[in-house]
Specification:
The chain is mainly beta. It has one helix spanning 4-19; strands at 26-34, 45-51, 54-59, 72-80, 87-90, 109-112, 117-120. The protein is globular.
Length: 121
């Protein structure tokens, strides 16, 4: 039993790290998660373009948003928020320590790479 403990700890560490990885360069489709609707997308999706540490979130016209297809919803740099460990779309390195993030706050938006969701109010 004691011999399997280190293996179990290693697997747990890998599982935690695996979901927190930033995707490689590319274009992806993410759900638009509305904080005021408990993260439901209501059918809206967006295109996420990643190049290095830069990210751009573009409305792809699927679902009902109050913007036009092709409008930029957010763009900035991919940063891991230190207090929460969540990935955010920052606009300066100082956002790493922002007091508020995501949802309906004035802080940087949250990008959930594991569940492919871009969070907004």
């Amino acid at each position: 039993m004691l011999k399997s403990l280190p293996i179990a700890l290693l697997l747990c560490t890998f599982a935690v790290c695996a979901h927190a990885q930033k995707p490689g360069n590319g274009t992806y489709t993410y759900a638009v998660a509305f904080a005021e609707w408990q993260g439901k997308s209501l059918g809206a999706t967006c295109t996420v373009v990643i190049k290095g540490d830069s990210i751009k979130v573009i409305y792809n016209g699927i679902g009902h948003l109050s913007v036009k297809k092709g409008d930029i919803l957010d763009q900035g740099i991919i940063i891991k928020h230190q207090p929460t460990g969540q990935w955010i779309i920052g606009h300066s390195p100082a956002d790493r320590h922002a007091k508020e993030i995501g949802g309906c706050s004035d802080g940087p938006t949250v990008i959930d790479f594991k569940n492919k969701k871009w969070w907004t109010c």
